[in-house]
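dumping these here so i dont lose them again. two proteins, back to back, each one seq then structure tokens. dont judge the mess
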Amino acid sequence: MNNQQPTWLDKTAYSFTSHFLKVSQGELHYVDEGKGEPILFVHGTPTWSFLWRNQIKEFSTQYRCIAFDHLGFGLSTKPSDFSYSLDAHQQNLALLVEHLQLDNVTLVMHDFGGPIGLGWALQNPDKVARLVIMNTWMWPLTHVKSMMQGSKFFGSSVGKFLYTTLNFSPRFLLPLAFFHKEKLTKEIHQHYLLPFADKKERLGPWNFAKALAGETTYFEELLKLKQSLTEKPTLILWGTKDKLIPASFLEIWKQTLPTAHVIEMETGHFQQEENPEIVTRVIKEFFQDTMKTQEPVL
């Protein structure tokens, strides 16, 4: 099985061993660093496990950190015959959890990692210890006219051209989503562009763009099952200067998970890149606080 990393990868920034899990449509790339209680990092678009590198370095000294790349992203296979549906991505996540025999999992989710990670969590609440939610959603977007219109446009032939020929998502949308523009250096940006170097490798981001409008049923099912997660310790870590996700989503989260601890940051969509130190510190404090409350009384 292939375990080689590409030559363009900065091994200092991403100093992890690559592993691959064979699934029906290809190979799922993941890293598995450290020992202890498992933390499972779930990325969105157009990112990959590279997004979590700073958190993995810090947390792997105390915890077992697993971060994987969805099919069509990062170092995973980018098949042309994969459905790229949210449910198919969720099923791959389930296969990885089963393969690694994970239990008592803390899910850290961002962007499309939210509906994918929560899709698994809602079916396996007994395996979930905590949730960390970062600029994502778990409900239908039919009420957000701009997102629905954008999704339908990008699902058209013109949209497919933009995504597959011009590499629209990492080249244009990703920089737009940064509030602190200086944090997206040329070197970091390359690590989000180069996984999609070939036109044939860009179906993952395009299918996510279509999913906003096209997967309403999937989001409706998530919302129906939300009750099974309402008692889980939850941290909502929100970038308030996000140009991709409406600010109103934070209020919906507060209503959906009313006991969640909420921290707001002055960053854009990619908090992990714009302020990795604060992201790490806030999650670490959340871990410490929730572990205290979960300790048995002797």
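---- next one ----
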Amino acid sequence: MGKYNLTALRVRQTVLQSQAAGKFSKLPDWVDVVRDIPPAQVLVRDRPQQHQLVRQRMNAPPGASRPQVIFEVQEKRTKPKKTSRMFQPVQIKYEEDQLRSEFFRDHPWELARPRILIESSGKDFEHFDWSRLQQPGKRLDGESVVQRQLWLLNNVPNISKSAAYDTARREFYRLRLQEDIERRVAAEEAEATGATFGPTRLEIGMELENKEYDLWKEWAKMEAAVLDQRAASFAGAPDAHAPAPAEKTEEEFIPAA
């Protein structure tokens, strides 16, 4: 039938005809299942539904007694897709994705901090109250800032994304500074009670840098000597690094009696 191959749709009919022709005596177990649940007969695929990003906001109009919850639809530009990509699944997007990329673009070193990867159900909002940034049982990280910013956008009336970002970032900086002070005080108390610590990461890095600088210095001296000898050989002058002849004293010029 043209370019369509309907062999898979007629597999039960083919098996029944083969049994009637005497090719085998017992039918397969899936014959009755295919009869009760036949394969789809529609040969045209529908395009996947285009989902739009819906954002929750709090709006407090002038004169209103209480703020209202509104849902905004972020309009997306529909780009023409290629024929080969027309029926691919639609990419799922969340508002946190944009907030997360913005934070880690401004704070790339937060990705270098060690993490604890624990599988969860994905319902952290049921266990944490993001009305404050620091949560019991959760380590402070960039995800805390993202969830705090999202909570501000969803619950504070007429707040902009930049204002929520500045608020969450200010709280994050204050807690990071508090952690650094607590860590420094704990180290000083441990040293006061007799604890000894090895070199810090900064000291180890400076030592490695000094070693590399000494190696580079020796290599630079050798390269400079090679270049000087090569320049002297081309110019025809005596070797600059050769030892100079010793000067004769007055006693050597006086003839012996």
